[in-house]
Amino acid sequence: MSEEFDQQFILSQQQCEFLAKTFHKFDPDENGVIELEDLAKVTQEILGNEIRSSELQAIRLKGEGCATEGYITFGDFTKIMREHMSSTTRWGGLKSKLQAFVGFDSIQDQLKEKALKRGFEFNLMVVGESGLGKSTMINTLFRGTVSRQSCIQHPEPLPPTVKINSVCHVIEEKSVNLKLSITDTPGFGDQINNLKSWEPILEYVNKQFEAYLNEEVSINRKKYIPDTRIHCCMYFIPPTGHCLRPLDIEFMKKLDKHVNIVPVIAKSDTLTIEERHAFKQRIRDDITHHKIRIYPSGYETDEEDEMVANAAIDKFLPFAIIGSDQLHQVNGKKILARKTKWGVIEVENPAHCEFVNLRNMLIKSRMLDLKETTDKVHYENYRRQRLHGPRDISDALSQPDN
Amino acid sequence: MEKILSGYVGFANLPNQVHRKAVKKGFEFSLMVVGASGLGKSTLINSLFLTDLYVDNGYHSPNQRLPKTTTTQCSAVHIIEGGVRLQLTLVDTPGFGELVDNTECWDPILKYIDSRYEEFLTSESRVNRQNNPDLRVHACLYFIAPNGHGLKQLDIDFMKQLHKKVNIVPIIAKADTFSPEECRAFKHKILQDINQHGIEIYNFPDYDFEDEEDARTNKKLKESIPFAVIGSNTVVEQNGKKVRGRSYPWGVVDIENDEHCDFNTLRNMLVRTHMQDLKDVTNNILYERYRIQKLSKMLNISDNQLSSRFTGEDFNGGNPMELLERERLDQEDKLSKMEEQMESVFQEKVREKLMKHREFQADLQRRKEAMMEAQEKERQELAERRRRYDEDRKVFEDEKLRSMIGTKSKKDTKKKP
C-alpha cells in the first residue's frame, strides 16, 4: 500500500523541505539518520498539537520496527510520515497555506441542508417489567403522546409471552424532522417463569440487522437504506434499593453485544438521596463484576474530549429517573411534575431526579453517536458473523466476540 | 328466656378474671411476611413493632451473591407493654420471587404453614398436653409491588394457593410511588383482580360498635384494603417536629399521617383491634379445615361424607381417638416383634462368631504342633550331620597323622643309605 502511495502521491517540494528541515534539526552531523528516541520529538514538531497520543504511539512502534541499530534513516522517516498522512487530515505543520479565501467552509451548510431535507431516524427500544413507567417516560422525553400505550385504544391485558410492538412517529422541531420509532416489549419479566424472556427481543434486534444487511448486499439496492436497527435500548431497573436481580443481569448480559444498553432506575421517587447513591453504587459494582457493556462507557473511543464526556456521564449511571406527563403550577410556572400529598416532584429539577441528564445524553448530545455505534460496532459484528457463513446465526452470535 | 336478677351476684366480674388470666399467661402471635425482595418488608416490620427485629446484614459483594430459592426464616421476640407480654414470632421468606424462574416458589411457604398445623394437631392429640405453644401462622402480610397495573401472575397464583390456609392481608408496598389518585385506582384494580379470581382475603368482621365513631373508623378501615404502606425506621424533621418518615428533596413523608399512607390503619388493625380476631379465625376456621382434611385422610372418608359431618365425632368408621389407640397397639406389637427378631438375629451372629473363633484356635494349635515336629526333625538331622562330620574329621586326622609319619619314615630311610 505504501508503495502505491509512493507512486501515486508525490510529496510537494514545500512538504519535502519542511520534513527535511525538521529532520536535520535532530541530525546535526548530517549523517542522514536520527536516533530512535528523537522520532517522537520530530513528529511532534512537524504535526504540532493536532497529533493524538494513540497516533504518536503507533508512529513510535513503526519506528521501532524499521530502525537499524537505533537509527532511522530519512527514507524510513518519510515512509512513516506518508502513512500517517494518508490516514488522517491532521497534518499539522505540513498543511499548505492558502493565499486567499476559497469558500469551501460552506460544506457545513451543504451538509446541514442535505441532512435536513432527508430527515433523521431514531429507533428506541424500552424494556422492563410492566408498571415501571416506560410509556410515561417516553412521553416525557419527547413531550408528546408518542408511547405505544397512548396510541392503542383500550388498555390491553398483560400478554402471556413477550411481544414486540413498535409505533412510529415523525416529530418536527425547527424544521428538523425526526422519524422516531419506539419499540415496546410488553410481557417482559411479568410471568412467573421468565427464562428465555429475552429471546424474542434478541430475535427482533437481529431481524432488523438482517433486513439492513439484505438490503445492503442486494444488487439493486435503494439509494437510502431504511434503517430500522435499534439504536438504543433503555432498560428499566425496578427501584428495589438492593442490587440487580438475576433477571436484569441475565438480560443485559445477553443483549449488551447486540445493542447499546442504557440502564435507568425507574420510579426513583421511592428512594431517598442516600438510598439512591448506595443503590447506584451497588448496580455499578454488579455491572463491572458481570462485565456488562453499557453505553457509553463500554465503548472505546480515541478522542480525549469524548473520554472526558463519557467519564462525566459515568458518574451518574444508571440514571435515576421520574417521569410525568402532567403539568402542574409550581412557583407560577407550569412544569412537568408529580403531585403527592407531601410535595411536588419536579421532573426537570436536577436536585430531584436525573431526567435532564438522561435527556441531554440521549437526545441533545449523543443521538448521532448512538446511531454511529450501532452502525459501526453492533452492525459490523453481526455482519461479520453472518458473512463468515455459519448457517445457524444464533450459534455464531452466542460466541464471544469484541 | 332471660331472667332478671333481684340482687348482685357478681359474675359481671368474669371478663376481669379472663383478663387477669390472659395477661398472666401472655399472648402469642405469629406473623408471616411474604413478598419479593426490595419491597420494604423488613423496614415495615421494624416500624410496626418499634423494635429492630431485623438486623441490617449489609450487602454481599457481587461475587458472593447467589440467587436463592424461597426459604422460611423464623425469629421470635418477647415484647412487653403495659404489663402485657407478647411472644411475637416472625416468619420471613427471603428469596421469594427472586429467581428468573419462579414456578412453585410458594412451596416452602405452604409446607411451613402445614407443618405448624401438623405440630399443633399432634400436640393436641398427645396424652400429656400441658404446654403446647401456638406457632401457627395467624396472619400473612403479602406485599404487592407498586406497579400501578394490578396483580401480577405470581401474586394471583400465590394467593390462590394460600388463601384457604392462612389469613392473607394484602399490602401495597412502597406506596410513596403513588399520588393519591394513582393509589385509589391501583387499589380498585387490585380488589377487582381479587374478586375476579375468587381469592379470599382476611375479612374484617363488623363488630357492633356502641360508639358511632368506632363504627366509622371500622368502615374506613375496610375501605382502605389493601393497605398502602410506607415504612421507615428513621426519624426526620418536619416543620420543626420530629416524625418517623422519609425525607426527600421535595418533601417529607410522615408515615403516621393518615393522608400520606395507611400505616396507622394497618398497625391499628393488626395490633390494636383485630389481633385476637386473626387468632380466632386461624384457630376456628383455618385450622379446623386443615384438621378435617388430615383426619379424614387417616380414616379414608370420602369427600361427600365429609361435608355432612362437620364435627368429626359421629363417624361410622369409629372415633378417631379409638383409631389412634388401635394404631398405637398395632405399632407396639410390630415393635416387639421386631425386637424379638433382632434379638434372635443377634444371637445367631454371636454363635457363628464363637464357632469361628474356636475353629481358628484349633487350627492354630495344629499348626503349632506341626511346627514343633518339624523343628524336632531338623534338630535330629543336624545332630546326625554333626556326628558324621566328627567321624570324617577323625578319619582325616588319622590319615594326616599316618601320612606325616609315613614321610618322616621315608625321609629317615632316605637318609640312611
Automatic annotation (TrEMBL), chain A:
<keyword id="KW-0547">Nucleotide-binding</keyword>
<keyword id="KW-0132">Cell division</keyword>
<dbReference type="GO" id="GO:0005856">
    <property type="term" value="C:cytoskeleton"/>
</dbReference>
<dbReference type="InterPro" id="IPR018247">
    <property type="entry name" value="EF_Hand_1_Ca_BS"/>
</dbReference>
<dbReference type="InterPro" id="IPR027417">
    <property type="entry name" value="P-loop_NTPase"/>
</dbReference>
<dbReference type="InterPro" id="IPR016491">
    <property type="entry name" value="Septin"/>
</dbReference>
<keyword id="KW-0106">Calcium</keyword>
<feature type="domain" description="Septin-type G">
    <location>
        <begin position="118"/>
        <end position="389"/>
    </location>
</feature>
<keyword id="KW-0175">Coiled coil</keyword>
<feature type="domain" description="EF-hand">
    <location>
        <begin position="14"/>
        <end position="49"/>
    </location>
</feature>
<dbReference type="InterPro" id="IPR011992">
    <property type="entry name" value="EF-hand-dom_pair"/>
</dbReference>
<dbReference type="GO" id="GO:0005509">
    <property type="term" value="F:calcium ion binding"/>
</dbReference>
<dbReference type="GO" id="GO:0005525">
    <property type="term" value="F:GTP binding"/>
</dbReference>
<keyword id="KW-0131">Cell cycle</keyword>
<keyword id="KW-0342">GTP-binding</keyword>
<comment type="similarity">
    <text>Belongs to the TRAFAC class TrmE-Era-EngA-EngB-Septin-like GTPase superfamily. Septin GTPase family.</text>
</comment>
<dbReference type="GO" id="GO:0051301">
    <property type="term" value="P:cell division"/>
</dbReference>
<protein>
    <submittedName>
        <fullName>Neuronal-specific septin-3-like</fullName>
    </submittedName>
</protein>
<dbReference type="Pfam" id="PF00735">
    <property type="entry name" value="Septin"/>
</dbReference>
<dbReference type="InterPro" id="IPR002048">
    <property type="entry name" value="EF_hand_dom"/>
</dbReference>
<dbReference type="InterPro" id="IPR030379">
    <property type="entry name" value="G_SEPTIN_dom"/>
</dbReference>
<dbReference type="GO" id="GO:0032154">
    <property type="term" value="C:cleavage furrow"/>
</dbReference>
TrEMBL record, chain B:
<feature type="region of interest" description="Disordered">
    <location>
        <begin position="367"/>
        <end position="417"/>
    </location>
</feature>
<dbReference type="InterPro" id="IPR030379">
    <property type="entry name" value="G_SEPTIN_dom"/>
</dbReference>
<keyword id="KW-0342">GTP-binding</keyword>
<dbReference type="GO" id="GO:0051301">
    <property type="term" value="P:cell division"/>
</dbReference>
<dbReference type="InterPro" id="IPR027417">
    <property type="entry name" value="P-loop_NTPase"/>
</dbReference>
<keyword id="KW-0175">Coiled coil</keyword>
<dbReference type="GO" id="GO:0032154">
    <property type="term" value="C:cleavage furrow"/>
</dbReference>
<keyword id="KW-0547">Nucleotide-binding</keyword>
<dbReference type="InterPro" id="IPR016491">
    <property type="entry name" value="Septin"/>
</dbReference>
<dbReference type="GO" id="GO:0005525">
    <property type="term" value="F:GTP binding"/>
</dbReference>
<dbReference type="Pfam" id="PF00735">
    <property type="entry name" value="Septin"/>
</dbReference>
<dbReference type="GO" id="GO:0005856">
    <property type="term" value="C:cytoskeleton"/>
</dbReference>
<feature type="domain" description="Septin-type G">
    <location>
        <begin position="25"/>
        <end position="297"/>
    </location>
</feature>
<keyword id="KW-0132">Cell division</keyword>
<protein>
    <recommendedName>
        <fullName>Septin</fullName>
    </recommendedName>
</protein>
<keyword id="KW-0131">Cell cycle</keyword>
<comment type="similarity">
    <text>Belongs to the TRAFAC class TrmE-Era-EngA-EngB-Septin-like GTPase superfamily. Septin GTPase family.</text>
</comment>
<feature type="compositionally biased region" description="Basic and acidic residues">
    <location>
        <begin position="367"/>
        <end position="402"/>
    </location>
</feature>
